[in-house]
Amino acid sequence: MALSNADNHAVTASVMPAFSTQTRLLVVAPHPDDETIATGVLIQQVLAAGGEVRILLLTAGDNNPWPQRWLERRVILRAVDRQRWGRRRYAEMLRALQCLDVPVQALQPQGWSDMGITDALLRDDTALLALSAAIAEFRPTLVTAPALSDRHPDHGATHVLVRLALARQADVPPLLAYLVHGHAAAGDRPIEAHGTAAQSANKLLALAAHRSQMALSGKRLIRLAARPECYAGVATSPVGGATALPWQPSAWLRPWLRLSVVSPGGARSWRWRDAPLQRDSAGRFHLSPQPGLTSPCFARLALTLRSPWIFDYWGWCELTRPSGRADAGLARGD
Prior knowledge:
With 334 residues, this protein is an alpha/beta fold. The chain has helices spanning 5-12, 34-48, 65-72, 79-99, 117-123, 126-138, 153-166, 197-209, 211-226, and strands at 24-29, 52-59, 107-112, 142-146, 175-178, 191-193, 229-234, 257-263, 266-271, 277-279, 285-287, 297-303, 315-319, 331-332. A seven-stranded mixed sheet has the order 3-2-1-4-5-7-6, with helices on both faces.
């Protein structure tokens, strides 16, 4: 069941739609604690209105080495240690959901690899099929998921997966994007969920239940959870003819760069020097038309060198019409 036309209009007009017993909220969370930090108030508001909530937890958050090393007083982490940490974080999430009055059956873990959602997205369509089936089974009237601009690689890749999965649905519900890591773009008009004093207190109690994450990052997480919950309405049927990439990487970095493109037709990746790029008179790089790439289409630029820094520098962008005609002034990129 989709939201009414009025509810769709409310979302696109930067106003949160009114909730009722017909509301079916789907929260897509890459890791335990994302559900509380980003949507703790929203969840409570939907439940207070008599609506239903389901949370798709994509990973157990088991690839979280520094808090685990700190709390367990160990340096080397084996596979069995990661599994134990994942069970701990899952148990913490169950306690957090109790603080938000979310029934345990509302949580649907997917068991994907923490810090591996990008690889799953680019490898094959297994993750996409699973997410599409979960959405079709629940039939949400409203979906919330990470923003495309979120710099955590699991978050950005989750946005792409959700967009591709929604494109397969017969009735496409509105999508609200939340941002945990990074900053909103200038000029964005956020859709805000303001909680009551009790709802805000419950959200902080839920956050405290994620004790493993509070150990090293408590002040930062409290600051994130205390701010108003802000969402961006996402147009799930984009229009326009942009093919330009937003990046102009330094020439000395290009031997270690990889460009990936994902659309309903599949995923493709190239080394920068082999990518089908053209350059316009303003110096911007454009993706040349590619057979099989249809909207929605997303591109990712990444450095192939290993680094202890987990966050994306370039991340993802959306190409609104990858198969459109290239500008006459385009020349082969380098």
